[in-house]
Every structure is written in structure tokens, then in C-alpha cells.
Amino acid sequence: MKKQLLFLALLLVGNLAFSQAVFRIVEATGGNPIVNDGAIFHSAVVGGNTTSKTFSMTNLTASTLTLSVRKFEDLLNTVVMGDVASPYFCTGLICYPASTFNSTVSLAPNESLAFIAYIDEATVAGNSKVRYRFTNGVSSQSITFTMDYNNPTVGINEKNSPVSSLSLYPNPTNGEKLNVNFNTNELIPALQIVITSITGQEVLKTNINPTLGNNNMEINLSNLINGIYFIKLDGINNSAQKLIINK
Asked: What is the pLDDT of residues 140-178, one digit of tens each?
């Protein structure tokens, strides 16, 4: 009887150890809340623009951990053939094209790396749903969350934005100058044009005083190296645009 009880106790301990979480995903903003399996994140993105959401993946163990990342395009906003929302993602410093659906990422003991979910919206905004699943084969732990873009049932409407029609030219640019053009639908006393790297690091910030209606600003990017960046109007939700510098 004692042997049976000892066996059951060891079995219970083994099962608890096996089911213990070995990695964690949290939102990078908003107090770093932990992302639970099945979570849904709603976001709005204006037609022709790019938006992103950053998370942090953390290895909770004292050993190197390999995570598998899988993208599921459950619903993509399609205007016409060739004019379709395009989701893609970055893990750490590596960004994958929209054609990539599977990747792996290695985390050193107790290491944290960024995971960024992007979407390039079609020319006209519409609903897209993209799932991301993170799994670790050793522990069988799995976390899946959904990015739900422009869902009309949650009251997202691009017409509510005080800024519209944000465009960049030339893009790609050689870095000598970039024209930023946008329309303001209401009087805004001040704005900042912010440029960030693909890892979310701020690399340039410029103060502007927009006028009501059409605005065109010229920015010198000669101090930035070749690569992919994102430019947005600080404080204006979903105004991010992808910028490519190729000198």
C-alpha cells in the first residue's frame, strides 16, 4: 500500500512538473499583462497604412528553449485581386515576409525577445483576423492569440481619425529627403513625426504644426542606415506606414 501511495505521489509530481509553463508571452505596453491562450486583440488600421502590436516572449527555464511560431490567416480583407491585407511578423531582430507562416526562435535561459505582429492594410480598410500560435514540443505548452483588425462589431471606424490619407514619397527613398503628406480632419495644435526601427526603437522625432486640410512635410533621413522603418504621427492611432531606406 505504501509503495502504491509513493508511486501515485511521484506520478502527480511528475505531471505537475510536465505541465508547468516554460515560456510566457506578455504585451509590451499597458502594464505588461500576460497573454492567455485564446486571447483576442482588437486593432484598427486605416486603408493603405500599417499597424503593429509588440509582445515579449520570455524563457522561464534555466535552459535554452526553442519556440515554434505559426501564423494562421483566418480572414484577410480583400478589396480586389492583388489588393489584399498582408500580415507578417518579427521575432527578435528577424522579420519574415508575409509568405512565411512557420518559424522557430531560440531563447537563452531567462531571455526575453520581442514578437511584433504587423499588417499592411489594403487600400480600403476591412476586417482581417490573424492567429499566432506559439508551441514548445518538450513541455507541450501552447499559447494562441488572435489579432482582429477593423472589426465593425467593436466600433472601429477609420473616419473617426483626425488624420487621413497619410502617404510617403519617394518610398523606397535614398535617405536624402522624404515627403510626408497627410490630411487633417480637425484642427490639431501640434504633432510629432516619429520614425522607429523594425524592433520598435525610436530613431528620429520631428515636431510639426499642422494646418487644417492638406499638409506636406519634408524630412532629411541622411543619418539613418539602409533598412526597414516605420513612420507614424505620434498620438494618432493606426497612422503607421512602412518606410524603406535604400541608399
From this structure: 789 999 999 998 876 544 445 677 667 888 888 888 888
Amino acid at 102: N
Q: For residues 130 and 146, is the Cβ–Cβ distance under 8 A?
A: yes
Given a contact cutoff of 8 angstroms between Cβ atoms, the answer to whether 25 and 115 are in contact is yes
- What is the pTM (predicted TM-score) of this model? 0.65
Instruction: With respect to residue 190, please indicate whether it lies within any of the assigned structural domains.
Output: yes
For residue 87, say if its preceding peptide bond is cis, omega within 30 degrees of 0.
Answer: no
Residues of the domain holding 30: 21-154
Q: CB–CB of 42/130 below 8 Å? A: no
Report the residue count for the chain: 247
Rounded Cα distance, 18 and 141, in Å? 9
Helix, strand, coil % in the chain, rounded to nearest 5: 10, 50, 40
CA angle 50, 47, 113 (to 5 degrees): 20
193 closest CA partner among 236, 225, 224, 238: 236
CA distance 235 to 222: 25
Spatial CA neighbour of 139 closest among 10, 24, 11: 24
For residue 121, give the DSSP letter: -
The three cell numbers of residue 212 are: 487644417
Pairing of strands 141-149, 39-43: parallel
**What CATH number should be reported for the domain holding residue 166?**
2.60.40.3080
Q: Which grid cell sits at 24?
A: 510566457
Cell of 62: 534555466
In this structure, what CATH number is given to the domain that contains residue 34?
2.60.40.10
